[in-house]
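Researcher: Let's do a round of design. I'm pasting the structure tokens now; please hold your answer until I've finished.
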């Protein structure tokens, strides 16, 4: 378990987390994301990219949103793609690299693929960045990578990103949506 997870599970839950242990010992975040960026597992500032950027770090199971000046404005838990898809002998890892968000959905966004066959899994406030991979809200957020390739975050965080932070491709941004960087596992 990462040290920042232990820290938030300590006496002073100053970041708004409520954590629980499942029967098998897995730690699950069940409520809230930190709105205070102090003590975040990602840097408070990054080298300015002169545009908004979302960074997802599957190795630490976190995401962060940065302003064009490089200042972090929000962060939370991220559940990325699993090393092996459940029931398949293939990888479900989220593709590593830099992408642009090209499509935005609302609270009714759904998967066209999962569960198989035919899809139907809820993906509230989906933000597609690489073919079928999206950043989206979910209720099953864990300190592990268990998704089918998407990046799951709290529904409240996905809604905030979707409506308060992310820009869709449009003339004002030269038809390039908000940048999202998926770091190495």
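Researcher: That's everything. Go ahead.
Model: Designed sequence:
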């Amino acid at each position: 378990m990462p040290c920042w997870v232990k820290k938030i599970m300590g006496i002073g839950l100053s970041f708004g987390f409520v954590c629980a242990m499942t029967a098998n010992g897995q730690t699950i975040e069940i409520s809230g994301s930190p709105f205070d960026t102090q003590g975040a597992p990602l840097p408070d500032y990054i080298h300015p990219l002169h545009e908004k950027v979302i960074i997802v770090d599957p190795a630490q199971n976190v995401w962060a949103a940065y302003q064009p000046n490089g200042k972090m404005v929000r962060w939370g838990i991220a559940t990325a793609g699993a090393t092996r898809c459940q029931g398949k002998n293939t990888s479900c890892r989220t593709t590593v690299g830099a992408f642009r968000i090209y499509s935005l959905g609302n609270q009714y966004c759904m998967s066209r693929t999962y569960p198989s066959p035919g899809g139907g899994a809820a993906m509230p406030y989906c933000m597609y960045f690489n073919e079928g991979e999206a950043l989206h809200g979910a209720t099953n957020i864990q300190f592990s990578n268990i998704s089918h390739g998407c990046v799951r975050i709290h529904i409240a965080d996905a809604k905030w990103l979707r409506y308060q932070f992310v820009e869709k491709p449009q003339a004002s941004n030269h038809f390039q949506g908000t940048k999202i960087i998926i770091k190495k596992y």
